Automatic annotation (TrEMBL):
<keyword id="KW-0234">DNA repair</keyword>
<keyword id="KW-0479">Metal-binding</keyword>
<comment type="similarity">
    <text>Belongs to the Nudix hydrolase family.</text>
</comment>
<dbReference type="InterPro" id="IPR029119">
    <property type="entry name" value="MutY_C"/>
</dbReference>
<dbReference type="Pfam" id="PF14815">
    <property type="entry name" value="NUDIX_4"/>
</dbReference>
<keyword id="KW-0235">DNA replication</keyword>
<keyword id="KW-0515">Mutator protein</keyword>
<dbReference type="InterPro" id="IPR015797">
    <property type="entry name" value="NUDIX_hydrolase-like_dom_sf"/>
</dbReference>
<keyword id="KW-0227">DNA damage</keyword>
<keyword id="KW-0378">Hydrolase</keyword>
<feature type="domain" description="Nudix hydrolase">
    <location>
        <begin position="2"/>
        <end position="127"/>
    </location>
</feature>
<dbReference type="InterPro" id="IPR047127">
    <property type="entry name" value="MutT-like"/>
</dbReference>
<keyword id="KW-0460">Magnesium</keyword>
<dbReference type="InterPro" id="IPR000086">
    <property type="entry name" value="NUDIX_hydrolase_dom"/>
</dbReference>
<protein>
    <recommendedName>
        <fullName>8-oxo-dGTP diphosphatase</fullName>
        <ecNumber>3.6.1.55</ecNumber>
    </recommendedName>
</protein>
<dbReference type="InterPro" id="IPR020476">
    <property type="entry name" value="Nudix_hydrolase"/>
</dbReference>
Length: 131
């Protein structure tokens, strides 16, 4: 089965990072994720991320650096999840795809019910920001 490329933003506002809970009716409903989405034909990863964040969250961010990529095999197919560290100047409270948003400390990330593909990214982030 094809590998689907998904981009996500690790969006910082000061020391806190944004995670979003997928709406119940979506795939992986109820799981928390870093917001983003599927890369479309003809888009770069960065263009795709900026587009998704505006579409879903009406959030304009600065992409600071490419962070960490991971491949995860779900029952219905595999995704490659490409993450970027971003900074946001404003805080958003509404999403078209999520029913809750939370700004959390990096060290607390694994206490949330993250989408399985996001767990290696969260672990890497905790390692990077520890001490
Ligand atoms: N945006 C995003 N998607 C993720 C993450 N982790 C993860 O496994 N995914 C999965 O990657 C796929 C693409 O995400 P998406 O946000 O574009 O989903 P979508 O609404 O276009 O499609 P879908 O609802 O049909 O699955 C979804 O199946 C989603 O569950 C993540 O951190 N961010």
């Amino acid at each position: 089965m094809d590998l689907i490329t998904v981009v996500c933003g690790i969006i910082f506002k000061d020391d806190l990072v944004l995670i979003c809970r997928r709406k119940a009716e979506k795939s992986l409903g109820g799981y928390w994720e870093f917001p983003g989405g599927k890369v479309e034909d003809g888009e770069s990863d960065e263009e795709s991320l900026l587009r998704e964040l505006i579409e879903e969250l009406n959030l304009k961010v600065k992409i600071k650096q490419h962070f960490f990529d991971t491949v995860h095999q779900y029952d219905n197919g595999a995704i490659e999840l490409i993450s970027f560290i971003c900074e946001s100047e404003n805080i958003t409270s509404e999403s078209t795809d999520h029913d809750q948003l939370a700004w959390v400390k990096v060290s607390d990330l694994l206490g949330w019910k993250l989408a399985p593909a996001d767990i290696p990214i969260a672990k890497e982030l905790i390692e990077k920001f520890k001490g």
